Amino acid sequence: MSQRTFSIIKPDAVKKGHAGAILAEIEKAGFKIVSIKKVSISKAQAEGFYHVHAARPFFGELTEFMSSGPIFPMVLEKDNAIADLRKLMGATNPAQAEEGTIRKKFAASIGENAIHGSDAEETAAFEIGYFFAGYELK
Ligand code: CMP
């Protein structure tokens, strides 16, 4: 069944000029881009987005990084979108990511790992709503 997920092309990938190549991988894998924009977020906005990680030791580093430059938040759609995007992204730590995955190709480290993807339906709903209004999701 068709499903929506939320993704972000992170500041490292945008800075290196990899946004277009990453979008091409996503489209080649059969995802429809429902909505996409280029934004810069504040540290407080990054903290709100990643609130589930607030107690983690890397929270400061993560939110500093995510507010360090422009990002491309987007909503993607296909059958089994949440699991399929995570497979396409590869492991969080690019050192453990499989050949052919986006993180294997474009990520430098566990922190600067090129792309984010929702891990469950509930998270996807929160994350889509954090960045997009209903009228942007036709
Ligand atoms: P993401 O899928 O965006 O969700 C949470 C992020 O935290 C994750 O990708 C990583 O980029 C980041 N992260 C996870 N573990 C670490 C870590 N040990 N050090 C720095 N960042 C981390």
Topology (elements, then pairings):
Layout: E1 2-9, H1 11-15, H2 19-28, E2 32-36, H3 43-49, H4 59-66, E3 72-79, H5 81-89, H6 102-106, E4 115-117, H7 121-131
Antiparallel strand pairs: 1-3, 1-4, 2-3
Give the H and E element order: EHHEHHEHHEH
**Each distinct ligand:** adenosine-3',5'-cyclic-monophosphate
Total strand segments: 4
Determine the strand fraction and express it as a percent band: 15-25%
Rg, nearest Å: 14 Å
CATH architecture: 2-Layer Sandwich
> What is the CATH domain class?
Alpha Beta
Q: Remind me, CATH topology?
A: Alpha-Beta Plaits
Class per helix and strand makeup: alpha+beta
* DSSP summary: helix tally: 7
Q: Report the average pLDDT across residues.
A: 98
Distance N terminus to C terminus?
18 Å
Overall morphology: globular
In short:
The chain has 138 residues and is an alpha+beta fold. It has helices at 11-15, 19-28, 43-49, 59-66, 81-89, 102-106, 121-131, and strands at residues 2-9, 32-36, 72-79, 115-117.
Structure description:
The chain has 138 residues and is of the alpha+beta class. The protein has a single domain (2-137), classed as Nucleoside diphosphate kinase-like domain (Alpha-Beta Plaits, 2-Layer Sandwich). It is built from 7 helices and 4 strands. The chain has helices spanning 11-15, 19-28, 43-49, 59-66, 81-89, 102-106, 121-131; strands at 2-9, 32-36, 72-79, 115-117. It has a 4-stranded antiparallel β-sheet with strand order 2-3-1-4, sandwiched between helices. Helix 3 crosses helix 4. The longest helix is centred in the last third of the chain and has 11 residues, at 121-131. The two termini are 18 Å apart. 33% of the residues are buried. The model has no long low-confidence stretch (mean pLDDT 98). Bound molecules: adenosine-3',5'-cyclic-monophosphate. Adenosine-3',5'-cyclic-monophosphate (CMP) binds next to helix 4.
